[in-house]
Amino acid sequence: MSRYLRLTVILVLAFHFTILTACQPSWDRKVKQSQLTLATPSDIATFNYAMNNSPFSVFPLIYQGLVAEDGKTNQLEPALAESWKVSDDKLRITFKLKDKLKWSDGKPLTVDDVMFTYKDIYLNKKIPTIFKDFLRIGNQDLFPAIRKLGDRTVEFSLPEPFTPFLRKSASLAILPAHALRDSVLSNDANGNPQFLSTWGTDTAPEKIIVNGAYQIDSYTPSERIILKRNPYYFRKDARGQQMPYIKSIVWQIIPSTDNHLLRFRSGELDSLSVEADTFALLKREEKRGNFTIYNGGLKPGIRFVTFNLNQASNSQGKPFVNPVKSRWFNNLAFRQAIAYAINRERIKTNIYQGIGELQHSPIAVQSPYYLSPAEGLKTYSYNPQKAKQLLTKAGFRYNSQQKLLDKDNNQVKFNILVKSEDQTRIATAVQIQQDLNQIGIQASLQTLSFNTVLQKILAKRDWDCYVGSFEAGIFEPNRIAFFWASNGSFHMFNKGSKSKKRPIVGWKINDWEKQIDELFQEAAKEADENERKQIYAQFQRIVAEQLPVFFLVNPISLQAVRNRVENVEYSAVGGLLWNIDEWRLKGKS
């Protein structure tokens, strides 16, 4: 059974439901009864899948890859490909496409589209897509070779064994060659492929050709996207009925998560992501409100604090981070002190209402590769006195007002960056601010929209400290390599650059970063599961010792869904919408 394509970056999609307006003419209310309306706290950035860096997108609804993952078991299953075969030497993977596949405009979807997507887009040196990271093999920037074996068969040849390849292909959508090839082959006035600016948010919906369950019907910036069923979607049920069953989806863009809650309680929403501080309230209203709160288990991603360890400068010679602050952030004792200074138990109790567990590892507890504290993973319990001792031993001191100073008498103060759309994350940042004040550090909050946050972290690199999250699958740690590898697109705590037009000067890679690079490369070549577990255990030990990122609380994933919605298979791993093409509305087709 095929499932929706999920992008791992980062990043889980925050989908919720809402009704357009409470006052509707009777005919419009009838239409609303046969559709769902999703809500997101952030506007989309682009309709160009390959150029997207944001988790807030409609791509899981409109695109498929060669294979997919079951959202509950995480097992691989067919999507556009009906089957695949791995050679005995692990160097060739052959996919056979389903028969008579079509794009949303009715044109045939063939192996030529697969060849175009991988060779001309993902592996195109002129196209700066994060998906190149998914296909990078080893430490020499090696990539698969692709060969067409027939109208429905394509072969990927690997330069060396790369165990994660199949799971990586679940995160790589296939794009339409007939609609995009000209933009890849043509250059703009600056010599860049026109593809880079193709399918922006100003593109007419009918020009955006897709292969997923839904296609774009209309888009009103900062307000809503309306999706309609793709009549050429490849899935049919056992009775031969075309899927998906739900005819249309309205995806509202509503920045305030508080507004989501209000609309859900007033009956306007079909679903809501349940935060810890609203769980008790909503649980009491479950029966009266005719909804069910689904427990998806612990979320598989990480909630963390990180410092900007980048010691480089931009092309004009200006350091990304104030050199004084950079010395603090790159001091291991300083990072260890911060880890001991943060009262994570208080965050768990006050902010998450006890609905979650303290987090210690970059790998999810559900993963077979997880290394627990009982198995020797270093942890940091709240101990402000130890934090102060580490700081003074490292050359810091306290003045008469108990403000922390470095050896050059600079007061230790910096900004904590946090996205404005997430109240839970802001509350966490506020408590961290208070905890740091207890050890003499002055931290100021910098709340910005998430798209602006991404720009600062991934492009401008001009930030101090960040309270964030990063979502990823649990069964293949290599899918988080683009966060942890030194050349990864989301290696935010020490972001390098390969751009010749925007070079950075003086970028340094730490020895422990090089070790992590080597471990991910070693694990990718290793087929023996016991050996892979040992390799990823060492990766987790390095992160715990060096603290480029230190972890907070792993919350339980809760989702409220109206009982009129049937066939919901909610899980923290797959998210809310992983099987949306199977959903039905009671009494509706």
Summarize the helices and strands and which ones pair or pack.
Layout: E1 16-17, H1 26-32, E2 35-40, H2 59-62, E3 67-69, E4 76-78, E5 81-86, E6 92-97, H3 111-122, H4 132-135, E7 145-148, E8 153-157, H5 165-169, H6 177-185, E9 214-220, E10 224-229, E11 248-253, H7 257-265, E12 271-273, H8 276-285, E13 291-298, E14 302-307, H9 323-329, H10 332-341, H11 344-351, E15 356-358, H12 384-393, E16 397-398, E17 404-405, E18 413-419, H13 423-437, E19 442-448, H14 450-460, E20 465-470, H15 481-484, H16 511-525, H17 529-546, E21 549-551, E22 553-562, E23 565-566, E24 584-585
Parallel strand pairs: 2-11, 18-19, 18-20
Antiparallel strand pairs: 1-2, 3-4, 5-6, 6-8, 7-8, 9-10, 10-11, 12-22, 13-22, 14-20, 14-21, 15-22, 16-17, 23-24
Helix pairs in contact: 3-6, 10-12, 16-17
Number of helices: 17
Distance between the termini: 20 Å
Strands ordered across the widest β-sheet: 1-2-11-10-9
Unreliable residue runs: 1-29
- Mean pLDDT value: 90
Structural class: alpha+beta
Percent in helix: 25-40%
Biggest sheet record: 5 strands, mixed
What is the tally of beta strands? 24
Report on the structure:
This protein has 589 residues and is α+β, with helices and mostly antiparallel strands. It contains 17 helices and 24 strands. The strands form 7 sheets. A 5-stranded mixed β-sheet has the order 1-2-11-10-9, with no helix packed on it. The longest helix has 18 residues, at 529-546. It is globular, with a radius of gyration of 24 Å.
Q: In summary, what is this structure?
A:
The protein is an alpha+beta fold and 589 residues long.
